[in-house]
Fold this protein.
Amino acid sequence: MTLSTRKAWRAPFEAAALTYDEAQAMAHDTGFFGSTDDPLLETVVEMLDELGRPDESFDVIQVAGTNGKTSTSRYAAAILSGQGLSCALYTSPELVEMRERMEVAGAPVSREAFARGISLAVEAGRRVNARRERSGERRFRVTEFDLLTVAACVVFAEAGVDAAVLEVGLGGRWDATSATRPVITCVTGIGLDHCRILGDTLELIAAEKAAVIKAGQRGCVLGVGTWAPSSVEDVFLARCAEQGVEPVLLRPASAADAPGEVEEGTTAERPGLPHAGYAVTHRPAALADPLALDVATPRAAYEGLTAAKPLYQAANIACAVTLAEGYLGRRLDEAALARSVLACPTPGRFDALSTRPLHLIDAAHNPQSIRTFLDSLAEAAPDVEARPTLLCAVLADKDVDGIVGLLAPAFPRVVVTATSSPRALPAPKLADAFRSRGVEPAATYPAVAEAVGALAGVAYVAVGSITLAGEVAGLLGR
């Protein structure tokens, strides 16, 4: 299926073949072939140019946002695959293995494909920096995300996919995925996160994410999280007008259909702009109870979509439906859409790794996503005293007080730990944060493995950071 002008691609050079373990290690520590300069978008642009632009052999669909972008990306890729396309998916971070960041046809790429992609990306970085040195320019610093993004483009090009859904890692303006040329974009929502990098107001963060909207794209979907306050939506609409890109605005039928998704503040009517909407027709009343929703887009109405997911996924499913339809430029096959939505996995998002006892992980890692998670938990388990134990770990560069303030009153018992991330908040400091909220942790463990071992026979919910979800999943055999 050809939806735009795409070119065939072959690697213009060969590279020393890395093993999978070597490739993972290289991605985790790329500094040996770069400088200490701040990362630049030009780094990825020149690496892709060096490789002859593998990203131009497929269509790029770019998804940005503070929360919901991983799930929206997953649903969009699943929907497009169900509509007959060969579709790839690039997300971050991984839960267990780094190759999980790259999927083709709904499955992580092989270790061999991942290693080849990294090998060629490393060689491209070396060639770019060697050329810069010869011309008297400073060497680029190639970051982990730079390397992985270039490698993903190589892997997807060699797999011959029609389209790839690329999740933005951080922000939008300077993100490595923005070195590609997306044919359509999506912004799921805006919240206060990475404030030291993106800015300390919602409007400043919106401006960084709005930069993914560029002239020549066939459209942009603005998710429910961009709706309020209206000053945030103004930022996106101004960018769309400046770049000549028509947005589709996604709205819930009621605020109750978008728990935790919309920031406080005024909203504005936007007559004359295309709208999409959704209504939740069945709210999950237990962990295994399905979600059901209807979605209306500028082209069609899709009724009775179901997923064994919590309530907050309704906004992401609706956003993905609108995005997939906008990319294809036609209404979706309804039977295939229903199958895709029902079958789409969302690892690390309200993810029950076992049920007896319940060991549930969620990658919520900032106040907005924590609120969304807790709203869904309240739907399934309204009695706080009957809920499982909370296993919590938080990264030090997050809004620790905001996260703890939300989690502390929501569970009958709290256990704290620290992940292996160099950014992890030490467990004793996290324990102090809970004490400051009037909650004495039942136990403190210095590492996740110790906590998981001690809680083996206890029902618990692990939430607070993406790395916590990943380490628990790895330890429990996901």
